[in-house]
Amino acid sequence: MDQTVLDFFVTRRTGAITHILIGLSVIFRPALVLIWASIISAKLWGMRYALLPLFTAVATNIISPITKHIVHRPRPPLNLQLAPEYNYSMPSGHAMTIIAVATAISLIPHKPRWATRLAGVTWAIAITVCVARLYLGVHWLTDVLAGGLIGAATTLALRWGYSQRAQP
Known about the structure:
- The protein has helices spanning 2-10, 15-27, 30-45, 47-71, 93-106, 113-135, 141-166.
- By secondary structure, it is mainly α.
- The protein has one domain.
- Helix 4 (47-71) crosses helix 7 (141-166).
- The longest helix has 26 residues, at 141-166.
- The termini are far apart.
- The relative contact order is 0.18.
């Protein structure tokens, strides 16, 4: 399945799309997602609700390199990568962090209509970033899926832990 998905994207590459998706991968790299999530959440919801997106971004920026080191999965062949990456592949740090933050923003309670739209936009960006990692040939499908699942699970675990601590 991984090779089939990689082959699918490799055969459909175009110059314009490649430039756009490389740009998205740079703008939404894990360390920058941490900064974006912190600033936007604090500005829009205040520090109380900014903590979940912030903590999930921090947690995934710690979990991803540790997991990559443990799993030691090689990336797709370098000659197929449009934006070469040299560290291990599993899980995708981009997918992990952006899915974690999208999940966190979706969990913020009492959202006005604009915030619900923002959550939708965040999910659209998250899915696009995940597809970009496949299109650019820097991850296998299972790397992206594992990253997304770990990211969402991290957010849910942090949210659950906070709710347990908040109870009398």
